[in-house]
Input
Amino acid sequence: MRAPVWRIDPRALAAVREYAPRTRWMAAIECQLYPFLADVPVIPDLYSTSLKRRLSGHYQPHRILDGLQRFRPEQVLLDSRFDYPPALRDYLAVNYRARFPGAVYVQWVRRDIADPSHDWSQDPFREAVMSLNEARLKPFPLALHLLRLGRPGQAQAMLQLALDLQSPALAAHAIEARRVLLEIDRRQPR
Output
């Protein structure tokens, strides 16, 4: 039997921990390990929302929305690789702010406790799909364009995502991309 491979996204875990002191309830859809590691209570109805349970019919997607509406958790963490019902997306867009739209795990923080100084996404579902596609298709030209627009954080995220995805479109520019990433990192204020 093969041992499971757990890959923890340190940025997602840090984001969950950042809001942990202000969190009474959290929902973690397809990524229940994060609230456990951050010692944040999970909504009882949503403690197990795995893809396997959904596919087998033991868990219906509308129960996610029901749990969110009933408990109003301060944080929601979604695995962006899965599709969610439009009603859930609409509810989150109205009541929460999203961070890290291009990442695997998108953190949603309830609007009344969300720190306004963070870089919040306007349409994280669309941005997640677009950034994955852009990172695969033309990451280096897009990153350079973002730099010209004065958006080094987005350029850095695009290049890092393309390197993580091992995008064939980046193969010809991989060395330059790493150089640009180092330069962006060097210029970032500490």
Summary: The chain has two domains: 10-121, 138-187. The chain has nine helices and four strands.
